[in-house]
Amino acid sequence: MTAQPLAKTDTQKPETANTKWVYSFGAVKTEGDARLRNLLGGKGANLAEMCRIGLPVPPGFTITTEMCGYFYDHDNTYPDTLENQIKESIERIEKEMKCRFGDRENPLLLSVRSGARVSMPGMMDTVLNLGLNDDTVAGLAARSGDLRFAWDSYRRFVQMYGDVVLGVEHDMFEDILDTLKRRENITHDTEITAEGWQDIVAQYKKLVEDETGRPFPQEPEEQLWGAVGAVFKSWMVPRAMTYRKLNNIPGDWGTAVNVQAMVFGNMGENCATGVAFTRDPSTGENAFYGEYLMNAQGEDVVAGIRTPQHLTVKGKQDNHSDLPAMEEELPEIFAELTQIRETLEKHYREMQDIEFTVQSGRLYMLQTRTGKRTAAAALKIAVDMAEEGLISKEEAVLRIAPETLDQLLHPMLDPDAEKATLTKGLPASPGAASGVLSFHADDAEHKAKLGHNVILCRIETSPEDIHGMYAAQGILTARGGMTSHAAVVARGMGRPCVAGAGALHINYQDKSVTVGDTVLQAGDTVTIDGATGEVFAGSVPTIQPDLSGDFEILMAWADETRGLRVRANADTPADAETARKFGAEGIGLCRTEHMFFEPDRILNVRKMILAENTAEREAALASLEPEQKGDFAGLFRVMAGLPVTIRLLDPPLHEFLPHEEEDILKLADALGLPADQLKNRIARLHEANPMLGHRGCRLGIVYPEIYAMQARAIFAAAVTVRKEGGDVPTLEIMVPLVATERELAIVKDIIDREAEKIMAQHGITDLDYMTGTMIELPRAALKADEIARSAAFFSFGTNDLTQTALGLSRDDSGSFLPYYQETGIWARDPFMTLDIDGVGELVRLGTERGRATNPDLKIGICGEHGGDPESIAFFHETGLDYVSCSPYRVPIARLAAAQAALKKKTA
Amino acid sequence: MTAQPLAKTDTQKPETANTKWVYSFGAVKTEGDARLRNLLGGKGANLAEMCRIGLPVPPGFTITTEMCGYFYDHDNTYPDTLENQIKESIERIEKEMKCRFGDRENPLLLSVRSGARVSMPGMMDTVLNLGLNDDTVAGLAARSGDLRFAWDSYRRFVQMYGDVVLGVEHDMFEDILDTLKRRENITHDTEITAEGWQDIVAQYKKLVEDETGRPFPQEPEEQLWGAVGAVFKSWMVPRAMTYRKLNNIPGDWGTAVNVQAMVFGNMGENCATGVAFTRDPSTGENAFYGEYLMNAQGEDVVAGIRTPQHLTVKGKQDNHSDLPAMEEELPEIFAELTQIRETLEKHYREMQDIEFTVQSGRLYMLQTRTGKRTAAAALKIAVDMAEEGLISKEEAVLRIAPETLDQLLHPMLDPDAEKATLTKGLPASPGAASGVLSFHADDAEHKAKLGHNVILCRIETSPEDIHGMYAAQGILTARGGMTSHAAVVARGMGRPCVAGAGALHINYQDKSVTVGDTVLQAGDTVTIDGATGEVFAGSVPTIQPDLSGDFEILMAWADETRGLRVRANADTPADAETARKFGAEGIGLCRTEHMFFEPDRILNVRKMILAENTAEREAALASLEPEQKGDFAGLFRVMAGLPVTIRLLDPPLHEFLPHEEEDILKLADALGLPADQLKNRIARLHEANPMLGHRGCRLGIVYPEIYAMQARAIFAAAVTVRKEGGDVPTLEIMVPLVATERELAIVKDIIDREAEKIMAQHGITDLDYMTGTMIELPRAALKADEIARSAAFFSFGTNDLTQTALGLSRDDSGSFLPYYQETGIWARDPFMTLDIDGVGELVRLGTERGRATNPDLKIGICGEHGGDPESIAFFHETGLDYVSCSPYRVPIARLAAAQAALKKKTA
Prior knowledge:
2 copies of one chain form a homodimer.
Chain A: E1 22-25, H1 37-52, E2 60-63, H2 65-73, H3 81-97, E3 100-101, E4 107-108, E5 110-116, E6 126-130, H4 136-144, H5 147-164, H6 170-184, H7 194-212, H8 220-234, H9 238-246, E7 255-261, E8 272-277, E9 289-294, H10 299-303, E10 309-310, H11 313-318, H12 326-329, H13 331-348, E11 352-359, E12 362-370, H14 375-388, H15 393-399, H16 405-409, E13 412-413, E14 420-424, E15 426-429, E16 432-438, H17 441-449, E17 454-458, H18 466-471, E18 474-477, H19 485-493, E19 497-499, E20 505-507, E21 512-515, E22 518-521, E23 525-529, E24 534-537, E25 542-543, H20 550-561, E26 565-569, H21 573-581, E27 587-591, H22 593-596, H23 602-610, H24 614-638, E28 643-647, H25 661-671, H26 675-685, H27 697-702, H28 704-723, E29 730-735, H29 741-762, E30 769-775, H30 778-782, H31 784-787, E31 793-796, H32 798-806, H33 817-822, H34 839-853, E32 858-861, H35 869-878, E33 882-885, H36 890-906
Parallel strand pairs in A: 3-4, 16-17, 17-18, 18-19, 26-27, 26-33, 27-28, 28-29, 29-30, 30-31, 31-32, 32-33
Antiparallel strand pairs in A: 1-2, 2-7, 5-6, 5-7, 8-9, 8-11, 9-10, 11-12, 13-25, 14-24, 15-19, 16-23, 20-21, 21-22, 23-24
Helix pairs in contact in A: 4-5, 5-7, 6-7, 14-15, 14-20, 15-20, 20-36, 23-24, 24-28, 28-29, 35-36
């Protein structure tokens, strides 16, 4: 029998007793460095790196991402060698910290944090204060001289460990605390005494025992193994998997585990904790930017529960804060931090996002990583750093993710528009967005699927809200700072975000929000401006962004670098103007059928289609010809001197016919035809699979008068523009849906004959034009050698090529493609990012074979993929001459093309 | 300017003064032979060959086909060297014939005939008696001693030359003759006296001068050049071009011109002319078969104007003729002809079609060529010749055009059926056909396009009728013999034909035919039996042909030779039985959806499709499962032990839904749904391009329960058959429309799980099956290396692969594909004969890449192309394991596969 189970992919690496699973860092010994990011995760690699450059980092060790792979390949177990390696590393920490893990007098406490190759903010679990138990809590009390602090730390640990490692629900711990606070009539946690915390700890421990059937683990080693396992397991929880899917992070990267000596920002008044960016992550300005909280533990800042203070006086002033800046409150620490900022930027040559803690007046660095930033900030930082000499121009070009430019290119609020300001929050992620209010992630996603623009409005966001944030046009929160979950994630996603708009009173039950006297319901429209933090009732008009300054500088650097030319798909003079503004170097696709849909022409188009013979068809075409000529002349004037690729009529003729009863009757009337006769003619033109039907050059071959008219209109327009003294574009006439050389040769003949006629008519001989073809059928790609005999240029029509190569109708794929993406059959939507393996091979073969026949063949691409960075890299690799995309994506394509060239150079 | 005209294909050969344009044949000197067919045409090469082997051939010469090419490349002119070469050749003829061209005493007369590489019966022009003029006619009269004969010959010449060379309409000459006959009250031409012919010649010459403005050319040399030019020009007349298109004969082959000394079969009572086949062209029987006319010129026999006599007594008896056989009438000539028959068969090792003339008791051979024959005759001749030792078995296999087997495989009239015999004619081409009467070729073509079976009924057919004969199912003529135009062409085309049914009185005006008292109108149905010559009113039931005897022997030889296995596409036990009868070695494609359309299941199928959730869908599937299981069990019983490839559900689900209002209402009723709701659901399932939509494995992946049900039904059926003691076929489960390996792996997993369940349920472990996939998308062919990881077999679905590779919907191509074929963009319908250059490359790549991963991969093809000989040759070449085609095409595929293997061996 052959009922073989699917072979399991064998990712298991040969395990040897010598495998190094644990890397120490600290003053005593640092084994890793920043280059080991894949093995140690981002956090672990950077902790090691900071140790190497002498920064104050609490000692610790990193368990590698390879261990994560081993863990999943071996039914959640560890190799025997791990225990000893961990033991040695703990001894080093003990040596440096001068305390001992589990020691009741002077206990070493540990944090256990995840850390994958790339940052997954808020996605995975952390356990702090590990090592505390009924004995060591006394040692902590003694050492800190603060009984209340010790028991507060212990209760935090029990709660965190109970939740993360033992799976006891977070709310159950909160209930116990709330009960105590109600009983004691206490509002803030700070009012709870040492005794109160002791009581809480006892109740927490009982809760854990009741829920898990086992007492809370007292043995520090057991605690550590539990926490390590929990971190590894958190790699595979649904929210982490969703995040990875959204961000294209492979599951097999795994996470590392960072175990580090605890330092406390909440041990008293000379303690603090904070986060900072070495430059402003919103504007990119070269100014130290950060927030901190006095006497707080790290997670308090990010959680957005207390409103934090600014690091600098400037930051305080810019944000109209009344709280003192660190520069004023802790000037020595601030000075040290400023020094570290400089060290880090010089060392990493990148804007850093750091976390620090001040314990009893001593500064500790807990993390550094490349800081997330807005697109505008990224641009400014890259340009500034290049101009400061920190990085080269090429590095600057490589640092901007092309997709992020999208944020800069889209409209902003019109400053002159009338706006009903509702309230103001923090400008957490720039860009403006209007949409209907939605108060839950699921609801936001649902409304977005129905085609609404949505503003997701939450008190604060959490990782559970990711899918709703992704679906929304913008995010609005009532609570949290610039580094709150909402702000960080929104910037990463490129969604406008206003955070911490405290005046909003959100009622999840009623699905409403109250601001002063105004009550807005779910479904009401609001507008947010992520650049100013303003929130407006209703929809506010927008204006085009200014593309000067840093944008212009960086794009100029990109343009110096790239090999691929970038054109735009544009059918009208207005589109063409937008395209030129965005730097398009020509039109790669002008769809002439768009001209046919103009309301004042459609009747003649329909007459042409419904003609019963050539004479009738020619009469209808004759009345369209002056209009087409006018269209082309308009386009040629805008595109003076640049290449313009004009595609002859492509879609099946029945696409131009009415299908609703009412419209048919109107048309019958206009044509003077009985309605039944018209319906019959329309029915005769109906096709089972119009995509594969009588369209493209098949129309121009069966009805040569159509293409002849179009060719005449093109040439006559060119003559007109030339007579005006204009600079006629390079005319590239493109024949669609060619499968055989013969088709192209036949159409080329029609075109050439019309060119000769027009030239003879105007007494000129030097009208320059080229005839080429779309390569949009697999056969055309395979027979490119033959087709190139009749073609001066190719343009890969990757939309149709994808449809035919994959047998996948874009119009119909909605019923299964989302499912295909969810299950990983297609990692990306193949209509967005080229299927490089399959469709890409046809592009490669078509290019090779076409050039083999005609080495001068000009080759471009004009599908949606022409604006997709990953696809652009492939087109560069394949040696195409240009890409053509929608005008708004032209800058993205320019940058992506430059990056492709740079990456190929260094590869 | 770049308005280049299309480059004209340069077929011009370098002309040298040394080019030999003319090849003599005859007793004096023979320069060509049979191997020079391409240069001399079939007729010319064989005339030379007959001279070489000592047969009596009137001397002459052949102007080569290269001259035809030159003629068209040089504006209908000749090279200077031609004149001299012709002159020399004429001198040789004069020497042998002891007379001189243009001599008034003893004139040499010539025939001028076309002769291309392959025979194009009746297509091109001939001029006889060339060299006659007002002077030489007297010489001919003197030499023949027959003034009437001489003037009859002269009038024939003037008429033929006037028509063929000078373009004076045939009818105008006929009118002159008719006028004279009416005036003189004459019925038969034979009654016209010498003086009568002299009068006619004078009138003919006046007619020519009136029509052309020039007197009839008297100069023999001028006559010759005119006739040669007319033959070359006849190569490009429309009817010749149509014939070539229908028969795939390239236009650049050109025709040769054969100029030969005239011999006369009409010079008196010891003269005759005839045609013969060395074996019976209808049955293949090894018996001399021919017809002749006493005192007649060659064209008279073929034209079917007089009913000819048989050569042999047996032939006379078999055909119930009252006229004497040549064996009786001219025994010496018959003996000489019988000797020649033997010589020719031994020499050519093929059945020959010969023309001869007896002039004054002396036999001359005018032509020999391979004889056209019916499919049955071809089979018998090939088998007999191999058994006689004339040819090898391999040659026998190669001699049968696979397509012709079609004639043997189709139904014959049921001998027990009630038949209303109308009349009887000659059994001119075997096979039975029913259809509506049609009296004109255009009308026949029109009706056939509307989907009718047509019987084309003509008094006699002519080359102008070719397209109508091609469109018809059968041909019926009132006049003409077994070698008449209708008979010869019908046999070549494989159309049943009854010829010379003299009782038919056809009225073209009324579009009716009268037989005795019966009047049939166009549109009435008749049935003809080309094997017996019978004609019946109405439609007569048919029975399956007997496939024993020669057929069985030849197919056995073919089977010994071929490498490709041949399977059939069959969905039911009945289809499977037909397939096995025709020699299918398995089922290559069982389309499970055909089972879904059964009237008693369609409701459950529709319930399954319209299910709103998995549970509903599973319930509907559960009620279909026993039916599917039963279907499979039936199929497995028939295909005992042979491989059976079962394709899982493939078409888009909406194909199963009703579309007519009435049917929708019925379904709504049956489902208990409001009609509007049902309409909405149907509308939701509608697709713009269903070919590229939610179908194939996309269904099985989104709704795994469908494929799971089908897999269970397959395995359960196999278990059932095994429990019955049956021989379970090799199960090959085929997944349709796979684009990525992952899809196949997912479906394979579903199948494997169901196999395990069924095996566990029945306590068995050794149920053998394979999972494989259709390769029907270009991407699948390109990524065959990856897909082969999960596939045990591939089957190229060349129908869909053609649709996607060419972007060509078979359903919609009717609006332009005929035009594409007419203009030569596609030489063949790419859905009939594989586009080897384009789609074929995908088959080749898919095979190479699939085998690179999995050398044991079984590879077949199951599109329409699996039954097309030319495509089969390609599949053999490419190394496929099998082809699968419709049951009726299985023998064709077996033979084509054998020929492909033989041709590859000798290549």
